[in-house]
Write a structure and sequence with these properties.
The chain is of the alpha/beta class. The chain has one domain: 3-Layer(aba) Sandwich (Rossmann fold). Helices cover 37% and strands 17% of the residues. Strands 3-2-1-4-5-6 form a six-stranded parallel beta sheet, with helices on both faces. Helix 4 packs parallel to helix 5. The relative contact order is 0.15. Isonicotinic-acetyl-nicotinamide-adenine dinucleotide binds at residues 8-10, 13-16, 35, 38, 69-72, 119-122, 144, 169, 171, 216-219, 221-224.
């Protein structure tokens, strides 16, 4: 069977969940990557049966495994020591992109991934127009929302079966002016779309995989509620 890894799932409202559900409905095993600050809430929802695991065709699916993932960090060495004192990260380990890649390989062997989904974004200053955005806010948006894809392809590409596919979620504000999508998030989506072309060329040759991005329409996810608030 095929296996998917969907990065950016922490509830059953977002694109990541909908994509995971569709892939499970098509017969894939689905592992997810969840941001440590929301991992506990997500696990409690799952344990209490509050996540809607129904399949479109009827029946139920389940997540094969939840991996903590903070896509701001490429390796353990990149994780700042202050995070050890952050209660949102207490007890959570191996959440850098490389550590998740290593855990996937340890759990499932290599190659083990057919579909890699990047469904995550973060822009701490999203509510500020670009013209008011700080350098730190801009770089944080690019790091979480665009470089994270490069790092995932770099570190998880070697785990992918030839013929596999990578997909991310973009937004029209990366191509056209859309007021309200600030803080460098429009810049991050422009980068994501440009990088998708270059990564498709490079990873296509290296790993025999496709890389695409989908310009998504509006969905009332947790992330979308942060926009325009
Ligand atoms: P979501 O909250 O379900 O998913 C985002 C996930 O990212 C959450 O689980 C976060 O915990 C996670 N996350 C944040 N930071 C990190 C990190 N450092 N490491 C790991 N995980 C992290 O929201 P979603 O489904 O909206 O977002 C999924 C993808 O879809 C993102 O790339 C969005 O930018 C993209 N997207 C969403 C929408 C939308 O409407 N929901 C649109 C376009 C693209 C959009 O914004 N009109 C207005 C707005 C839009 C479309 C049309």
């Amino acid at each position: 069977g095929k296996r998917a890894f969907v990065a950016g799932v922490a509830d059953d409202n977002g694109y990541g969940w909908a994509i995971a559900r569709a892939l499970a409905g098509a017969g894939a095993s689905v592992c997810v990557g969840t941001w440590p600050p929301v991992l506990g809430i997500f696990q409690r929802l799952r344990e209490k049966g509050r996540l809607d695991f129904s399949l479109e065709q009827g029946g139920e699916w389940d997540i094969e495994k939840v991996y903590p993932l903070d896509a701001l960090y490429d390796t353990l060495d990149d994780v700042p020591t202050e995070l050890a004192d952050d209660k949102r990260y207490r007890g959570v380990e191996k959440f850098s992109i490389q550590e998740v890649a290593d855990a996937l390989e340890a759990d499932h062997g290599s190659p083990c991934i057919d579909v890699l989904v990047h469904s995550l974004a973060n822009g701490p200053e999203v509510s500020k127009p670009l013209v008011e955005t700080s350098r730190a806010g801009y770089l944080a948006a690019l790091s979480a929302s665009a470089y994270s894809l490069v790092s995932m392809v770099q570190r998880m590409g070697p785990l992918m079966r030839p013929g596999g596919a990578v997909v991310s979620l973009s937004y029209l504000a990366g191509e056209r002016v859309i007021p309200g999508y600030g803080g460098g998030m429009s810049s991050a989506k422009s980068a994501l779309e440009g990088d998708t072309r270059t990564l498709a060329y490079e990873a296509g040759r290296r790993y025999g995989i496709r890389v695409n991005t989908i310009s998504a329409g509006p969905l009332a996810s947790r992330a979308a509620k942060a926009i325009g608030s």
